[in-house]
Design goal:
By secondary structure, the protein is mostly beta strands. The protein folds into three domains: 124 residues, Carboxypeptidase-like, regulatory domain (Immunoglobulin-like), CATH 2.60.40; 118 residues, Immunoglobulins (Immunoglobulin-like), CATH 2.60.40.10; 77 residues, Immunoglobulins (Immunoglobulin-like). It is 0% helix and 48% strand. It is built from no helices and 27 strands. The strands form six sheets. Strands 1, 3, 4, 13, 14, 17 and 20 form a seven-stranded mixed beta sheet that branches. It is elongated and about 85 Å long.
Length: 355
């Protein structure tokens, strides 16, 4: 492997204007040929939630919106501790070499699915030696960006990793001649998440975030948090599989979840439905009066389970629909009132500072 040569510069990558981005076929709620997402409720008040998904022939731009949720799929350092895994979720059929191989170089091409077109941009490539170095790591020999890239490789064995957003695949390469190539099928698609409150009130950035958990056959208790705090509306590229998505509206108990399926070469869109409202808490000496500062707040269920805690003259909390008790602590005294949250009904909750 010491004789291996990685050549960069003009041959390292194909620029976007040389190979335009490939549209990603996408999934939307307009047809029923894809299964609806299974949804479960995680709210403290015991309400329910649903998520809608489906499929159409529409297209959208590839999953590279420049946000942090489309950062490299882990392992982005310059070396690896062990041979990268090329089985499991990233397994895909070998579709043979690229159609256009540049003489004198080893051509690497990425596709989302085995029958899909080549990706024109947005792929991060890394090539590793197949043996561990003196430091116990697999040495990274070179890297390049682009859907199709060209390396100068001496005959030998290598490992190549291709990352596209949060999707990735590792393949073992056996190079016998400097002119050759390999198509790496990512077996991946995209996910775009949105949320509404009630029937039709959209929730945007700043209102909701999504946690995306990787598929895990060991069960729900073993799920790995793959993408934390993803914003709504962004396209996140992922390997094919069923992902558990948790939608958080505010910092209270307005939390719902759903399982979303990602198919190779498609964009899955899902809308999660919250049943909640924003409440502004106020401790006042009389109804309609000025809110008292330096007040510590606690919101509980009628059974005494705490669902929110905050400090301020008029803090805002988001709560799932249901019954609650607001407890205000001011100047060493506690005051409280019971109230009910109705879906989509944002309002003030006043607690009277009276014994």
């Amino acid at each position: 492997m010491a004789a291996a040569l990685i050549v960069f510069g003009a041959m390292a990558t194909v620029k976007a204007d040389d190979a335009p981005a490939v549209p990603l076929p996408h999934v939307s709620p307009n047809k029923t040929d894809a299964p609806a997402a299974a949804a479960t409720d995680s709210s403290g008040s015991g309400g329910d939630s649903t998520a809608t998904t489906g499929a159409t022939d529409a297209t959208t731009a590839g999953p590279s919106d420049g946000s942090d949720v489309n950062s490299d799929l882990g392992g982005s350092g310059d070396d690896l501790d062990e041979v990268p895994d090329d089985s499991g979720a990233t397994a895909a059929p070998d579709v043979g070499p690229p159609a256009d191989i540049r003489p004198g170089s080893y051509t690497l091409e990425a596709r989302l699915s085995s029958d899909g077109p080549p990706l024109g941009d947005g792929v991060k490539w890394r090539v590793f030696a197949d043996t561990l170095g003196n430091d116990g790591h697999m040495q990274m020999l070179g890297q390049a960006d682009g859907g199709i890239v060209y390396f100068g490789l001496s005959p030998g064995t290598y490992y190549v990793h291709a990352a596209y957003g949060r999707a990735g695949a590792t393949r073992k390469l056996t190079v016998t001649d400097r002119t050759g190539g390999q198509v790496v099928v990512l077996n991946a698609g995209g996910m775009r998440l949105t949320a509404v409150n009630g029937k039709d009130t959209p929730l945007g950035t700043g209102d909701v975030t999504f946690d995306i958990y990787a598929p895990d056959e060991a069960g729900a208790e073993e799920r790995f948090l793959l993408v934390p705090n993803a914003p709504p509306g962004h396209i996140i590229s992922l390997n094919a599989g069923v992902y558990h998505v948790v939608c958080k509206y505010g910092s209270g108990n307005a939390v719902v979840s759903a399982d979303i399926k990602i198919d190779p070469g498609k964009l899955s869109e899902a809308t999660l439905f919250e049943k909640a409202a924003k409440l502004t808490l106020k401790l006042v000496e009389q109804h309609g009066g000025e809110a008292l500062a330096d007040t510590a707040w606690s919101v509980t269920t009628p059974k005494g389970d705490q669902v929110a805690q905050t400090v301020g003259a008029f803090p805002t909390v988001v709560l799932s629909a249901g019954d609650y008790i607001a407890i205000a602590k001011h100047d060493g005294k506690d005051y409280q009132t019971s109230f009910t949250v109705a879906t989509g009904t944002d309002r003030d909750v006043e607690v009277l500072a009276q014994q």
